[in-house]
Amino acid sequence: MGWVPTAHAAGNQDGAKTKADKDAARAEWHQGGVAYNLGHYDEAAKHYEAAYTLVQDPAFLFNIAQSYRKGGKLDQSLDRYRAFLRTTSADASNRDTAEKFVEEINRTLEEERETASVVPPKAAPDKESPPPGPAETPASPASPGPAPQPPHGCEANQVPIPRGTFWMGAPDLDMAEPLHQVTLSPYCIDKTEVTVAAFRTCVQDGGCPPAYATDGPSWKKKTKKEIIKPEFCTWGKIGFDQHPMNCVDWNQATTYCAWTGGRLPTEAEWEYAARGTDGRKYPWGNEAPVPMRLNMSGKDDGWERTAPVGSYPKGASPFGALDMAGNVWEWTADGVASYDSKAVTNPQQSRPAGSPRIFRGGGWHNDAPARLRAEYRDWGGPGTRVDFIGFRCAHGVKL
Ligand SMILES: [Ca+2]
């Protein structure tokens, strides 16, 4: 088998644990080892979990992770390896092994997600009647078109976006014209902006560089667009766990998304997730922004600055994504480029490191309706860290 349970895992606990607990944990640990060596990995995981419940020795977390991995339960295994890495000392044995398996499992899960998401949806897009451009009469938000066939493999905090074709852009906004037809492969997108709590998990896991709540070494004014206003950053402040992570630059956002096994959405993916196929201007339809639908400038919506993510279900997009207007602007993967009128499939504007990047959706400081429109484009240097820009991630096919 090649794997030996951590020696005396139950025997080196602090004095607060009763002898009975330690003995019971040792018994569970022993039974776990027996089950493991017989190849009964589910049973082994159960015994090790029971031991860990009795005596919180991080060594058990490693045993649990190994059992889940051998039993093919990769999500649980990953969770336990990460917990082990978070709670053991830097020089603990098995850390290297755990790190190796975290990498390996992440790779496997990503491959599985990719394989799952390239399965064509059963309902093909209706090619006979392509979606109209922005209509003279507002489209009804209550009828966003046929129900999409979701791709497989989206997680609970993501919404599935089906393969589809839409008219991207707006004829009446600078930089958002001309209208052009865009076809996208299926993907998943986070239902809300990435929260402070989620970002913290990445920082604690070592996957993300530390974020800053106040002035830090990289907080320098670079250009007009990169002025830092740390007083309204959400990181490191009590009561902001469910607020969007803001004051993150494009690189930090990119790193976080990669850590989750995803990536930043392209501009086209972002816009499609925000407005669907009927040419609407806002996630909810064509009605001008009102406080019940989003967090915009002012306190009428309940929040003077950032709001907890998902606070405005009445502002949901046709696919169910929330906060795609207001709260914080959101980084996309793309660099800045003018639109062309020809139809494109899975467009992506890759740019060298250091190039400006597009952000979308408007933020808590905006009151001009145009800036809160789903087609509106703005951009800044990738080092821009401001209190009105956050992000969400996409998952699925790689372009
Ligand atoms: Ca507000």
Task: Tell me what the structure shows.
The protein is α+β, with helices and mostly antiparallel strands. Helix 4 (74-87) packs antiparallel against helix 5 (95-117). Strands 8-7-5-9 form a four-stranded mixed sheet. It is 28% helix and 10% strand. The protein has eight helices and ten strands. It folds into two domains: 15-112, Serine Threonine Protein Phosphatase 5, Tetratricopeptide repeat (Alpha Horseshoe), CATH 1.25.40.10; 155-399, Alpha-Beta Complex (paralog of FGE (formylglycine-generating enzyme)), CATH 3.90.1580.10. Residues 295-296, 298, 301, 303-304, 364 line the site of calcium ion.
CATH topology of the largest domain: paralog of FGE (formylglycine-generating enzyme)
Number of strands: 10
Run of helices and strands: HHHHHEEEEHHHEEEEEE
Poorly predicted runs of 5 or more residues? 1-16, 118-152, 214-227
- Kindly report the name of the CATH homologous superfamily of the largest domain: paralog of FGE (formylglycine-generating enzyme)
Instruction: State the separation between the terminal residues, measured CA to CA.
Output: 40 Å
Small molecules held by this entry = calcium ion
**Helix coverage percent:** 25-40%
Q: Regarding CATH, which class of the largest domain?
A: Alpha Beta
Largest sheet: 4 strands, mixed
Strand content: 5-15%
* Total helical elements: 8
Rounded mean pLDDT score: 82
CATH architecture of the largest domain: Alpha-Beta Complex
- Rg from Cα: 24 Å
Number of domains: 2
Query: Reading side by side through the largest sheet, how are the strands ordered?
Result: 8-7-5-9
Structural class: alpha+beta
Coarse morphology: elongated
